[in-house]
Amino acid sequence: MKQYLIYAWDGDDKQALERRMSIRQAHLAGGKQLKANGNFILGGAMLNAEGQMIGSTMILQFETEEEFEHWKNTEPYILNGVWKKVEIHPFKVANI
Fold first, then answer.
1. Tell me, what's the pLDDT at 53?
2. Which of 8, 15, 16, 76 is 20 to 30 A away from residue 51, measured at CA?
3. Is the pTM of this model over 0.90?
């Protein structure tokens, strides 16, 4: 399986946290489905100094690039403009 490290930064506008929270349940439901399918390895929110969510980091895996692209094209945080900057890096989880 191909693995991916994803850094996704929320917008920095005044509505960013509200936008995130309004879509959060759909995002988490998608994460639960990814986990059930074996695609989710690790993920969580990045926090600022005040402890507020400002982005996400995820490690995902997919059999094909097409499956990964489908995830990107249907991820609620992407579709609804929560994540404004997304970095995707090939990744390999250490087998230790």
1. 96
2. 76
3. yes
